[in-house]
Structure formats: structure tokens, C-alpha cells
User: Fold this.
Amino acid sequence: MLSDFALEPPSDSVGGTLAEGEEEGRLTLSTIHSAKGLEWHTVFLIWAAEGKFPGQYSTVDAAELEEERRLCYVAVTRAKRLLYLSYPIQYYDRSTGPAFGRPSRFVADIDASLLRTMALVEEAF
Assistant:
């Protein structure tokens, strides 16, 4: 099922799987490429971390970096009301091991007055 969502445009993938009523809610998984022209109430852009978005290889070539910036613009403009940009503080990279995340340069370019910082904290039970 997830491969169908990843490979097809959201409008094709969710046929017959939508919630019966608005109160039931729904979740649409989409790539940035297949989201062009679509909008949702709330959008979560995950992995907005430097080295991941833009990808580490895209930062070498100026044209590729600008293409990644355009893709970021497409992603953030899909949100009608709420936009969440997230990145991990710490993650495991298969090639380098444990790593610390920092916001994507695209997030860092946004005026800080437009952002509200939030953090998820694990609590011991």
C-alpha cells in the first residue's frame, strides 16, 4: 500500500480509501513532486534537515540547489492553513553513524518572526 502512495499521484492512490465524512479525518501521504497543484489544510514537511533537504549532493551544483529550493517552495505552498517543518535533532546515518540534525538552509532562510519553534521531548514514566 505504501509503495502505491509513493509512486502514484495522491489523487490516484487514495481512490476508494477516503474517510466517509470530514469528521473522520484522513491522511494523505505525498511526495513533493506529486503534490504540485494540490492543497491541504495542514502540511507536514518532514526531514527539513541540512544534508537531507537539500540533499548533500545537491549542494555541490548551484543549478541543482536552486531546483531543490523550488521543490521546497512547492512543498510549503501546499498548506492552506497550517505548515509544520520538522527535522530530527539526532538521527542515525548508515554511512556515518549517529549524527546531529540542524535545520535545512531553506528553513534557516525564513524570517524567524514567521516561525514558532516547538520540540518533542521524551518523558520518563
User: Anything to note?
Assistant: The chain has a mean pLDDT of 83. The beta strands are 40-45, 79-85, 90-93, 97-100.
